[in-house]
Amino acid sequence: MNKKELFQRIKQLKESRQLNEHVPLDDEEGGMAMGELKTSAEAANEIAGMLQNNTQLEAWVQSKITKAKDYLVSVRDYLKSNPDAKE
After folding, report:
1. What span, in angstroms and rounded, lies between the C-alpha atoms of 15 and 17?
2. CA angle at 78 for the pair 21 and 10, rounded to the nearest 5°
3. pLDDT digits (tens, 9 = 90+) for 39-68
């Protein structure tokens, strides 16, 4: 995913009802997860804005970005393949 695609995806997430700023953050796991995803999307957007295609990053920074992506993709794939888990 290139920088432009990342910005577009983050914008879609922010505009979707799923990451609405007015999501109640109470004791429910869904509310907590949505708050965490909102923060993650904001951080990803800010980081993407700091980078260029030729930006050199230390190995540990690259590793953290890859891990974050891998974790989010794993959760997405799990929820997509287990619709009952969303209830």
Report:
1. 7
2. 35
3. 999 999 999 999 999 999 999 999 999 999
